[in-house]
Amino acid sequence: MLRSLYIKNYALIDEFSVSFERGLNIITGETGAGKSIILGAFGLLLGDRASPDMIRAGAEKTIVEAEFDKGNNQELRGFFEANEIESVQDTLVIRREVMSRGSSRGFINDSPVSAQVLKELGELLVDLHGQHEHQSLLRAGTHIEMLDDFGGLGALVSEYQTLRGAMLRLLAEIAEMKSRKARSDEEQELYIFQLREITAINPAEGEDVSIEARLNVLENAEELQSAATNIHELLYGSEGSAAEKLGVVREQLVRLAAIDSSLEEPLAEAKSALAIVSELSRWISDYASRVQLDAGELATLRDRAQSIQRLKKKFGGTLEAVLQKKRELEEKLSFEEEFEQRIAMKESELSALHPRVAKMAAKLSKSRKDEAKKLEPQIIAILKELGIEHAQFQVEIEQELAKDEESFALLVNGQPLVSNSRGVDTAQFFISTNAGEAPKPLARVASGGEISRIMLALKTVLAKADRTPLLVFDEIDIGISGRVAQRVGRAMKSLSSDHQTIAITHLAQIAACADAHYLAEKNAVKGVTTSRLRRLSEAEHIEEVARLISGQVLTPGALENARSLIAEAVQKNKNARLAAV
Fold first, then answer.
1. What CATH number should be reported for the domain whose range is 2-131+467-580?
2. Residue 156 host element (H or E)
3. CA-to-CA distance for 422 and 148, rounded, in angstroms?
4. Over 50: is that where the pLDDT of 135 sits?
5. Is 352 left (phi over 0), alpha (psi -120 to 50) or beta?
6. Which one has a higher pLDDT value, 561 or 578?
C-alpha cells in the first residue's frame, strides 16, 4: 500500500506531500491543474526515463519520494535478496532525484539503485494504467500466470516445475557426459600411449633419490674403500692403534682403581671407549669389504636414472608429478570404460521421468482450458456492465510442435511439444469491443478509455489472484457517462477492497465512490504558477462532486445530487459487502 507521496520541483509542482488511504483514492481537478503531472512524477519514481525538462524552472533538481507499507508481499523478499538491498521491517521508501545537468539517482531504503531496478520493483508494487510500460495486463507473457492464478493452479505448476527441473538436470548431465566421452575418445590413444610410457619404466615413489644416492657410492667406491681400510688400521689393525692404546689405559686404571676407588668411574669410561672403538673398527672393516666398484650395476643405475629423468622432464619436473600423472591417466581410462554404463543409467532415469513431466504438462493444459472457459464469460459480463455492450473476450492457449533437434520437448497426447517453465502452453488474452469485429490481442486495443475499462474488468475478476498491491487508473472515464459511469465507479470500489486504488476522473458518478478524495489545484502567486494535490474534507468532497455535475457554480440542486450520488454509492457498496458475506 502507498502511504505517502512527496514531490519537489517537478514541472509546475513546487513542493507538496500527500498521504493516501486504503480503498479507493479519487483525484479530480480542472484540465491543466496538474493531475497528469502527478502521475508523471509517479512514473518517474517507478523507473521512467528522466530528463532535465522535468525540473521546475529555477530549481537544481527534482525529487520524488514514496513510502509504501510492504504488507505481506512475499515477492518483495526475493527482490531485496536478489538486489542486496536492506529490508526495513514494515516500510519501503523509494526516491528518485533528477539533476539539472541531466543525471538521475534512484534509492530504495537509502540504497542507491539503477532505474532498471526501480522499474523491476515498480512492477511488483504498482499497475499504472495510462502509462503502458506499467500495464502488466498488456504484457502477453503475464497472461498465463494470471490464468493459473485465477484457476488456483499454483500447486500443479509448482509440481511440474520440480519435475521439469529434475529432467533438465538429467539432460545437462547426459549432455556433459557425452561431450566428455567425445573428447575422451579422441584423447584415449594419447592417454594409453602416455600410460604405457610411464608403466614401461614403472618408477617407485622416491626411487630417483635412492638411485642418486647409490650412484654416488658406486662412482666413489675406490675412495671409500681406501679410506675405510685406513680408518680400520688407525682404530685397530696397526701397531699403536687406538684400540691398543686404550687397552693400556684400561690396564693402568684397573691397577690404580684398586688403590683409589674414586677411579672406578674413569675405568668404566675407558672400558666403554675401548668397546666403542672395537665395534666401530669391525663396522668399518665390514664396510671396506663390501664397498667395491660394480661396473654392471653402475651402468644399469645410470640408464634407469636417465629414463626416470626423461619422464620427469615430460610430465611435470618431479617424480611425484610423474606418479600423479600415472594415477590421472589410469582414472581417465577407467572412467572411459564406465562412460557407456553411466550414460545408459542417466538415460534410463530420463526415460522414466519424461512421462511424469509430460503427464503433468497435459494436466495443466486441460486445467487451463477449463479455467479459460470460466474466465471468459465473467470478463464479458463485467465489460457489458461497464458499457462495452458487444464485448468478446477469449483466452487463446497455444502449443508449439518441437523441431527435430529440440533439446527439451515433451510428448503430450502423442505430439512432441516445446516446453517452458509453466508447461507446454502459451496463453494470450484476445478481445473485441465492437460488434462484428474479430477479437485481437489485448495489447493491440487502441482506445485509452476502452483499455482502462478492459483492465478494470480483468482486474475485478482476477483481483483475488493478482498480487500487485496498488492500481492506478488514468482517463478511465473517456467516452462514458450516466449509468455506465456509475457501474465503473462501483466496479472500482469493489476492486479497491482487494487493492489500494488511485484513479483520476472527471465524472461525478465515479468520484462519488471515493474513500478519499483529492483535488489537483493550480495557483498563480506573483506570476509563478504552482500545482498541488490536496485531500478534501467530507464537505469539500460533496462540493467537488457537485462541481463535476454542474460546473463552477454550485447550485442547491447540484449539491443535493452530489449527496444522493455519494449516499447511493455508500449503500450499494454496503449491499455488495453483505451479499459477498
1. 3.40.50.300
2. helix 154-201
3. 9
4. yes
5. alpha
6. 561
The average pLDDT across 226-236 equals 80
The residue type found at 287 is Y
Amino acid residing at 347: E
126 versus 90: the higher-pLDDT residue is 126
Whether 22 contacts 77, CB under 8 Å: no
Phi, psi for 250 (deg, rounded to 5): -65, -45
Tell me the average pLDDT across 444-456: 69
Amino acid identity for residue 51 in this structure: S
**Percentages of the chain per state (helix, strand, coil), in multiples of 5:** 60, 20, 25
Residues paired with 64 in a beta bridge: 7, 96
Bridge partner residues of 472 (DSSP): 128, 502
430 neighbors 375 (Cβ within 8 angstroms): no
End-to-end CA gap in the chain:
24
Write the burial class of residue 466 (CB in 10 Å: 0-12 exposed, 13-18 middle, 19+ buried): buried
pLDDT > 70 fraction of the chain, expressed in percent and rounded: 92
Provide the β-strand partners of residue 113. Answer: 106
Distance CA 146, CA 131 (A): 20
**Alpha carbon 388 to its chain's center:** 42
pLDDT digits (tens, 9 = 90+) for 516-537: 999 988 887 776 778 888 999 9
Which distant-in-sequence residues (6+ apart) come within 8 Å of 153 by Cβ?
147, 364, 367, 368, 371
Give the C-alpha separation, 521 to 112, whole Å.
33
CA angle (421, 126, 20) in 5-degree steps: 155
Q: Which residues, 6 or more positions from 136, have their beta carbon under 8 angstroms from its beta carbon? A: 123, 127, 142, 468
- Read off the pTM: 0.62
Which cell is 408 given? Answer: 527439451
pLDDT tops 80 at residue 168: yes
The answer to whether 410 and 357 are in contact (CB under 8 A) is yes
> Side chain identity at 503, as an amino acid letter?
A
What does the pLDDT read at residue 132? 47
Q: Can you give the residue ranges of every domain in the chain?
A: 2-131+467-580, 184-334
Strand 126-129 versus strand 470-474 pairing type: parallel
Residue labelled with grid coordinates 539503485: 113
**Which spans in 234-392 are helix H?**
242-259, 264-290, 295-314, 319-385
pLDDT at residue 447 in the model? 59
Q: What average pLDDT does this structure show over 433-448?
A: 78
- Ramachandran sector of residue 132 (left: φ over 0; alpha: ψ -120 to 50; beta: rest): alpha
